[in-house]
Structures are given as C-alpha cells and as structure tokens.
C-alpha cells in the first residue's frame, strides 16, 4: 500500500447500466486475472463473467460499484441480496454459523476486480466498502480461489472468515467460501 492513494471516484450502477458497461467490466476482469493460470484452469473466463453478470441482474437489489481514475475505469465489484439457501447451497448450509444460516440479511459479493496496475492502492477495499454500504446487510459472503494469496490476504484484512469449501458445479473447482458479519 502506498502512503497517498490515488483519487479514485466510485459510481453506483444498477441493472439498467449493465449492457453499456459489460465490455468494460470484462476487460477489467481479464486484466485483473492476467497471470492467474488457476483461474483459467478452473473455467473462469471473461465470457463466463459476462453470462454470470447478466444472470445475476435478475436478483433483487443488484448493486454494481465502478471505480474510475480520471477517464480510466480501474475496478468494479458487484453483489446482491440473497437467501442463505441460495448462496451457500443445501450441502454447505448446515455447516454455516447458525446466525448467518438463518439470516434474512445476506449479501452475496460476486466479483471484486481491480486492473493489475492499480492493485495494492486500496481501490479494492474502497469498492468493497462501498458495496457493503449500498447493500446494507448483516452478513456478506464471497467465494475466493484458495491459491490466490493476494485476494485471500485482502479478504482476511477486511474481516472475512473461512466458512467452508464450495464446489462450483459438478466439474467446477472447489473454492473457499468466506463470510463476514457486517453488523453486530
């Protein structure tokens, strides 16, 4: 982290803005994951991201936060309100902390990506905090690649705790399900 972070502006967007922003979001995501062979091997691609975002726009209270620096878009994150059963899945639900398992106030944070040249400046933290402020839930949860040390370090610093292994489909990778109590 540098001593004086860049002056990044954060902008909140909703479902109606996705069509215009989708190419930019896919470009940021691709740049953020350059050199992460485990991501590609797990089947995560910019095309999969496009399908994922488009599918997630049907969720209630979908929120997208985009970070810009001057005229360059440098990062984004999005999430939405969801039920514990939807987010954790029937198999993992019994292993989740009871207060989180039974909550009616859960946000699923689906993506948090910052261009590789802008990582380490606190932009991801600002996007994350802005997402949580917009979603206003008691709990937040996200999935992380087990081998992504940078992301894992960020999420630990933000207060997330490991909640269990999450199998991303029959042929998909096993990801780390992380959980954060946002309000006590």
Question: Any overview of this molecule?
Answer:
- It comes from Kitasatospora putterlickiae.
- This is N-acetyltransferase domain-containing protein.
- InterPro entries: Acyl_CoA_acyltransferase (IPR016181), GNAT_dom (IPR000182).
- Pfam families: Acetyltransf_1.
- The chain is built from seven helices and seven strands; from the N terminus they run βαααββααβαβαββ.
- With 184 residues, it is of the alpha+beta class.
- The two termini are 29 Å apart.
- It is globular and about 45 Å long.
- The chain has a single domain, classed as Gcn5-related N-acetyltransferase (GNAT) (Aminopeptidase).
- Helices cover 36% and strands 29% of the residues.
Give the arrangement of secondary structure elements.
Elements: E1 9-13, H1 18-32, H2 37-41, H3 46-56, E2 63-69, E3 72-82, H4 84-92, H5 98-101, E4 106-114, H6 123-135, E5 139-144, H7 149-157, E6 161-167, E7 174-181
Parallel strand pairs: 4-5
Antiparallel strand pairs: 1-2, 2-3, 3-4, 5-7, 6-7
Give a short summary of the structure:
The chain has helices at 18-32, 37-41, 46-56, 84-92, 98-101, 123-135, 149-157, and strands at 9-13, 63-69, 72-82, 106-114, 139-144, 161-167, 174-181. By secondary structure, it is an alpha+beta fold.
List keywords for this structure.
184 residues; alpha+beta; Aminopeptidase
């Amino acid at each position: 982290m540098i001593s004086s972070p860049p002056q990044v502006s954060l902008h909140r967007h909703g479902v109606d803005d996705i069509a215009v922003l989708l190419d930019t979001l896919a470009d940021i995501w691709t740049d953020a994951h350059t050199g992460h062979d485990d991501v590609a091997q797990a089947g995560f691609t910019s095309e999969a991201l496009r399908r994922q975002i488009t599918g997630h726009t049907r969720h209630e209270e979908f929120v997208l936060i985009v970070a810009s620096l001057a005229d360059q878009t440098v990062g984004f994150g999005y999430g939405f309100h969801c039920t514990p059963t939807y987010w954790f899945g029937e198999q993992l639900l019994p292993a989740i902390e009871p207060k989180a398992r039974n909550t009616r106030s859960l946000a699923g944070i689906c993506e948090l990506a910052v261009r590789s040249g802008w990582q380490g400046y606190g932009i991801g933290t600002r996007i994350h905090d802005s997402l949580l402020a917009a979603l206003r839930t008691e709990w937040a949860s996200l999935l992380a690649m087990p081998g992504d040390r940078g992301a894992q370090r960020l999420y630990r610093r933000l207060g997330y705790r490991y909640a269990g292994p999450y199998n991303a489909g029959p042929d998909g990778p096993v990801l780390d399900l992380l959980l954060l109590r946002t309000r006590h």
